[in-house]
């Protein structure tokens, strides 16, 4: 953007009429930053003239830890990347290993993967909208409604995998345990009840005049900038770019389901908010079809060795449409039991890089809202 | 009309508020220490060691193969192998862990130790109220704290335990049959040797006699004492 350099030059030159420049350090312990994240903000009055994201407070050496353990040992660590969506993180990683070692996946396992991934997407979006509204001052109410539904999904995850959030459920070539018919019935019942919740949730604030005033035209992300910055996921689609990896890559069995990709028009916070609600509805559509069509059969490729897996030397990149954007895992194997290089492409972090461009010229109160609409999880940003 | 959206939202809030008095779906919280949700059967917290029978020392299934120690992603298991051996459930002599520690402050409840264990010796517990005032010794679980009986396992994970018991019973049966077959074969061999020895050379009989004893010793006696 032209504004950044120009403003900076004027600020550095000490030009008159700009007023005093105040430097505010938002975070790392600021409730609006969704974790430990700091924004170095320069303000002229209430207007943001400069914003520098500073992260790394939650760095856990994820990639190097994975390069020191077996392929299997990295799966529980991927749970802790985007800790709200351990199911999709697992999927991204096992997809990369499956590509690397050429492991087939049974059909039933693919269907269960779709079911858990879409449930995960639903609870992520519900939670995100709740947090976004909380940041705007709708204190608690939408968030608690969202968490009430999220709890039901986490209960399903717990009865399936044993843990609510750190599921550690997927394996190369399939899944760890099979789901029971009773579990599928529970999913069916939950999915039939959730549209009512989405309607309610939408009615709660969709037409709210205060919400519109706070979000419409705020934090606009132009289409070209979104593409050039490598932004993915609901943020990119809110800017009007039709790019969904479920449709583009046809990974898993997504091409068997009938669903649409919602697109935004303006690329502002309101569009990003509505994008999440529309995606929740599409997820429910996929869930209904997946639960209806799920075939029987094995859930894991019987020939795959989990322990002591030795893929042939080579490299592979597995990517999926995680709730936050394109989650990719890049692996290089040198033929041994541990990965030679392990790299995560975290959607949260790459979506965060255009934060300054979206915030410039807005009030400091809007920074909180814009950051909320990006949907970041610091576990994934810092790794 | 300006403000219509706000009123619409407030209607939703009111519906939820009054609904919470009549609708179970709208009031989902429980008063935790007094009221509790029932845990799903698959729930996992931290690992424990299984033993058969009444004695945690003698019945401990762990044979100290140290696979879990190697595979554990955060490396929270510490095992020291015993010097001597003791018989396991099929009567085979096995090592046992002289020291088995799990540092639960490091453990991340991933269940990989359970998956890789070939002896069904380690399983996940569902106890979650584990806070302690001592953060070092209190969070380092040693063998006596880790050892839990098979009855306990059956109580917390009934389906999984039933499967496991069935598989182990089958294994024990097979081992017993194999031992019986081996014993029968060696007995037949001995009988054959005895039958042929008077007719054959005298020095051949003594050779057969020494060969049959080591086969009989491990196969025949041990399952009976177990």
Structural features, described:
The complex is a heterodimer of chains A (383) and B (226). Chain A has 16 helices and 8 strands. Chain A has 383 residues and is an alpha+beta fold. In chain A, β6 and β7 form a beta hairpin. Chain A starts with a helix and ends with a helix. Chain B is of the alpha+beta class. Chain B has a domain at 47-150: Alpha-Beta Plaits, CATH 3.30.70.3270. Helix content of chain B is 45%, strand content 15%. Chain B has a 3-stranded mixed beta sheet. The radius of gyration of chain B is 29 Å and the shape is elongated. Classes of the chains: A alpha+beta (383), B alpha+beta (226).
Which sequence of SSEs, written as H and E, runs from N to C of chain B?
HEHEEHEEHEHHHH
Radius of gyration of chain A: 21 Å
Overall CATH class of one domain in chain B? Alpha Beta
- Summed over residues and divided by their number, the pLDDT of chain B gives a mean of 79
Low-confidence stretches of chain B: 200-226
- Main interface by residue count: A-B, 39 and 31 residues
Rounded Rg of chain B: 29 Å
Binned strand content of chain A: 5-15%
Distance between the termini of chain A: 29 Å
Describe the oligomeric state of these chains in a short phrase.
heterodimer
Number of helices of chain A: 16
| Gross morphology of chain A | globular
The CATH architecture classification of one domain in chain B is 2-Layer Sandwich
Major sheet attributes of chain A: 3 strands, antiparallel
Largest sheet of chain B: 3 strands, mixed
Question: Count of DSSP helices of chain B?
Answer: 8
CATH-defined fold name of one domain in chain B: Alpha-Beta Plaits
Shape designation of chain B: elongated
Strand arrangement within the widest β-sheet of chain B reads 4-1-6
Distance between the termini of chain B: 84 Å
């Amino acid at each position: 953007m032209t504004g950044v350099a120009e403003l900076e030059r004027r600020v550095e030159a000490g030009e008159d009429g700009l007023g005093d420049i105040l430097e505010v350090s938002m975070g790392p312990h600021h409730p609006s930053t969704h974790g430990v994240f700091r924004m170095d903000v320069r303000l002229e009055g209430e207007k943001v003239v400069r914003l520098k994201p500073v992260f790394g407070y939650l760095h856990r050496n994820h990639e190097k830890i994975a390069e020191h353990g077996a392929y299997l040992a990295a799966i529980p660590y991927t749970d802790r990347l985007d800790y709200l969506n351990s199911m999709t993180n697992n999927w991204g990683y096992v997809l990369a290993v499956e590509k690397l070692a050429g492991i087939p996946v049974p059909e039933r396992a693919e269907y269960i993967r779709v079911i858990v991934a879409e449930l995960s997407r639903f609870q992520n979006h519900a939670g995100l909208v709740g947090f976004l509204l909380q940041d705007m001052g709708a204190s608690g109410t939408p968030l608690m409604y969202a968490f009430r539904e999220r709890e039901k999904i986490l209960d399903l995850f717990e009865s399936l995998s044993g843990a609510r959030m750190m599921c550690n459920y997927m394996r190369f070539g399939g899944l760890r345990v099979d789901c029971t018919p009773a579990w599928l019935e529970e999913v069916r019942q939950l999915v039939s009840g959730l549209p009512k919740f989405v309607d309610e949730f939408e009615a709660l604030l969709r037409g709210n005049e205060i919400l519109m005033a706070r979000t419409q035209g705020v934090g606009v992300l132009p289409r070209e900038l979104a593409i050039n910055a490598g932004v993915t996921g609901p943020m990119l689609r809110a800017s009007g770019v039709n790019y969904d990896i479920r449709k583009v890559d046809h990974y898993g069995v997504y091409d068997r389901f009938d669903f649409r990709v919602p697109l935004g028009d303006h690329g502002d916070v309101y569009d990003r908010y509505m994008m999440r609600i529309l995606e929740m509805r599409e997820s429910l559509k996929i869930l209904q079809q997946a639960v209806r069509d799920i075939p029987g059969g094995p859930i894991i490729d019987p020939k795959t060795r989990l322990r002591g897996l030795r893929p042939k030397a080579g490299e592979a990149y597995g990517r999926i449409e995680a709730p936050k954007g394109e989650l990719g895992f890049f692996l290089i194997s040198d033929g041994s039991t541990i990965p030679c290089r392990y790299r995560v492409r975290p959607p949260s972090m790459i979506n965060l890089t255009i934060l300054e461009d979206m915030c410039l010229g807005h009030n400091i109160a809007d920074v909180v809202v814009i950051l909320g609409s990006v949907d970041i999880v610091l576990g994934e940003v810092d790794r | 009309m300006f403000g219509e959206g706000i009123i619409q939202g407030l209607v939703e809030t009111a519906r939820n508020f009054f609904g919470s008095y009549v609708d179970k779906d709208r009031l989902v919280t429980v008063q935790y220490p007094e009221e509790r949700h029932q845990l799903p059967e698959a729930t996992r917290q931290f690992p424990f060691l299984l033993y058969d029978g009444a004695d945690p020392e003698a019945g401990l299934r762990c044979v100290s193969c140290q696979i879990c120690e190697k595979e554990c992603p955060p490396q929270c298991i510490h095992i020291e192998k015993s010097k001597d051996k003791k018989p396991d459930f099929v009567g085979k002599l096995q090592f046992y862990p002289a020291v088995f520690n799990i540092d639960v402050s490091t453990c991340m409840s991933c269940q990989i130790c359970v998956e890789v264990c070939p002896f069904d010796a380690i399983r996940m517990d569902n106890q979650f109220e584990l806070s302690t005032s001592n953060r070092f010794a209190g969070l380092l679980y040693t063998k006596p704290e880790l050892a839990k009986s098979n009855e306990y396992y059956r109580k917390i994970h009934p389906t999984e335990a039933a499967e496991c018991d069935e598989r182990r019973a089958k294994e024990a049966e097979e081992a017993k049959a194999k031992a019986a077959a081996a014993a029968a074969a060696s007995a037949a061999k001995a009988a054959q040797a005895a039958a042929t020895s008077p007719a054959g050379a005298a020095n051949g009989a003594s050779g057969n006699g020494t060969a049959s004893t080591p086969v009989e010793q491990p196969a025949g006696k041990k399952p009976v004492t177990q």
